Amino acid sequence: MDMVDIRDARKTYEGGFEALRGASLQIREGEILALLGPNGAGKTTLISAICGITQPTSGTIRVGGHDVVKDYRQARNLIGLVPQEINLEPFEKVANTVAFSRGLFGLRRNDALIEDILRKLSLWDKRGAAVKELSGGMKRRVLIAKALSHEPRVLFLDEPTAGVDVELRRDMWAIVEELRQDGVTIILTTHYIEEAEAIADRVAVIDKGQILLVEDKDSLMERMGQKSLTIDLTEPISSVPDVLSDYDLVLKDETTLVYSYDINAERTGIGRLMADLSGAGLYVRDVSTRQNSLEDIFVGLVEGDAA
Ligand SMILES: Nc1ncnc2c1ncn2[C@@H]1O[C@H](COP(=O)(O)OP(=O)(O)O)[C@@H](O)[C@H]1O
Ligand SMILES: [Mg+2]
Q: Which of 6, 218, 223, 259 lies at a CB distance of 3.0 to 4.6 Å from 25, suitable for a disulfide?
């Protein structure tokens, strides 16, 4: 079943700016989807529309089968949201803040659950501290604890690791993985490609209010994967010899040639290239290969769109 179903969502802000321009996206139950896009792409707007914080101008959005506008309450009950901006009551104590969030959903008090959440997020020792005494990273943990307090089936994390330290980032990834094992559907927005690469099952790329692509991370990386072979030469050269002009070769510096090839092509051309190099009087000291990352793919997509 699709846990989140977005069809042709549009959002025009007051003043006329179109932040969503017909976005469609289906998110499966239990998956981790990374919504990847540059600043201003519409990530927060899309999440806000799904969570009922902002109303889409047109289109339909369903969560767990409930229309987020018409059946707001049922939809919202399924959703946990970790917002991009820290919005906490500074004088409230950590544990109270989290327990209160649960109460807002009309759920019975559950001290054991709140304790469990606070412990998982390394907040238990800080449970009696006022929010304003916490560091930025700790406040972010409190936001996550709040979002989990009513046991959501879908969790939205809006740029959860922007500006956080390495330790918190790693903790966050571990928490996400644990939630996935509990069957929680997770949508995470990020402009850090390495984050999508590290934890997502699927990647959706958004730019200028439109979803440009949705694909399994692995197949995306494979399908669009280009590899490059770096060749170190024993002697410097000033240009790529004419006899090698048929190859996609770049002279990076005078002893380094870079050959790009498609990993899915029937022949990579490496064997012939090696022979032709030696025919051209060039001697190879060493070679290494590198597979393009999601970053290369992403930059290519977004740049192509801007043209
Ligand atoms: N309340 C608003 N009023 C007008 N424009 C807005 C508002 N919120 C966001 N925008 C604009 O909509 C675009 C998308 O913003 P946002 O959804 O926050 O992008 P992202 O989260 O991908 O960085 C941006 O150009 C932003 O300036
Ligand atoms: Mg945002």
A: 6
